[in-house]
Amino acid sequence: MFGRYFCFFSLCLLLPTQRRCSLGHVSSLHGSDTTSLPGFENLTMGYNKYLRPYFGGEPVQIAMSLDIASISSISESDMDYTATIYLRQRWTDPRLVFHGNKSFTLDARLVELLWVPDTYIVESKRSFLHDVTVGNRLIRLFSNGTILYALRITTTVACNMDLSKYPMDTQTCRLQLESWGYDENDVVFTWLRGNDSVHGIEKLRLSQYTVERYYTLVSKSQQETGSYPRLILQFELRRNVLYFILETYVPSTLLVMLSWVSFWITLDSVPARTCIGVTTVLSMTTLMIGSRSSLSKTNCFIKAIDVYLGICFSFIFGALVEYAVAHYSSSQKCAAKAPQEGPANELTKEMEEVNITNILNSSITSYKRKISFTSIEISSDNVNCSDLTMKTHEKIKCVLRNKMHRIIGYFTIQNPSNVDHYSKLLFPLFFMLVNVFYWAYYLYF
């Protein structure tokens, strides 16, 4: 058989012209020396499958259409999608014209005897042609020489994704078909019916995405070896955010609200407030780790969900720090009162042992000390820096000392219980404002 093929192609190269015969006519070449389609011996006598139609002349017009059977998976970590498609290609070969208006469906294995385009899928990582129970290919021959060639292919195609707005993102993916060896001088790719050449994509039901819209494009790929025709199917996928709201956003928001419960607990309840603060911080940390585990290979992206979890973690941690500040201020105030209460207790004990004269003397002495101490404090806080007798460097030190006292006075908490009172209002208010800016930015910008 291979010897017959070799003899046939040798004759094709040697003969100056090839005689094509219609059905019912006899070729000038003997059937025993040539190869032909079974049942079409007279039609394909002298047919050379290694030469494209119109060889040496005008390019072949190849019209394509697609049926998207399924998109089984879309991987953010690998940045690709897997789809099963029905690819149909149509072109006209004048060497296969026969009389009549019939069409014949041929065995798919006979495709080896015909010229077919060398179409491939651009940016395909893995592809295979289904072969159960036989190779899923179709060959149909029309009387005007038109050939319909259909394939069932499953392919994994790269799709560059921008995950900065995840999970409120919209991804744009492409399916590109291009000629591998024939440039635009040999073949021309066109969509059969424009956007109507693609079917099935609007009926797809995906787990995380919804197909927003799709459209077809005709382009060219400029390579070092020439310019090659390319067809592009571009479709937009919008992620369904409801799952992430229930899975991540609602729990993180509830944890922030739980951390506010400590504002209604007294400062003396150290174990209760500390337990709430530490528990919410650890729970928030676990939630953040879990949200990133599904996208372990894309940690370089700062996603919208990471921003929200970071905001929630900051508010929870801030509630814990707020209690630490309030408790520390309260303890400092109690320590400041202790020296003043100490002499009073001692004075009470002495009153039981001494007479009225000693009590009056000690009271007068302590009163003078307090007056002198208060005057010293007042003079130290309100030092007159405009004294003419003071030197320049002393005036500078005086001014700086007065400003430091004022700054420290601003940050001194006079009543620690007011910290919780203000936190009850400020924490929810700021959290609501941050949520308004967050959702407005990621949904509308």
TrEMBL record:
InterPro entries: GABAA/Glycine_rcpt, GABAAp_rcpt, GABAAR_pi_TM, Neur_chan_lig-bd, Neur_chan_lig-bd_sf, Neur_channel, Neuro-gated_channel_TM_sf, Neuro_actylchol_rec. PROSITE patterns: NEUROTR_ION_CHANNEL. SUPFAM superfamilies: Neurotransmitter-gated ion-channel transmembrane pore, Nicotinic receptor ligand binding domain-like. It is found in: Apical cell membrane; Synaptic cell membrane. It catalyses: chloride(in) = chloride(out). Its main location: membrane. One of its GO terms (molecular function) is GABA-A receptor activity. Residues 248-354 form the Neurotransmitter-gated ion-channel transmembrane domain. Belongs to the ligand-gated ion channel (TC 1.A.9) family. Gamma-aminobutyric acid receptor (TC 1.A.9.5) subfamily. GABRP sub-subfamily. Heteropentamer, formed by a combination of alpha (GABRA1-6), beta (GABRB1-3), gamma (GABRG1-3), delta (GABRD), epsilon (GABRE), rho (GABRR1-3), pi (GABRP) and theta (GABRQ) chains, each subunit exhibiting distinct physiological and pharmacological properties. This is Gamma-aminobutyric acid receptor subunit pi.
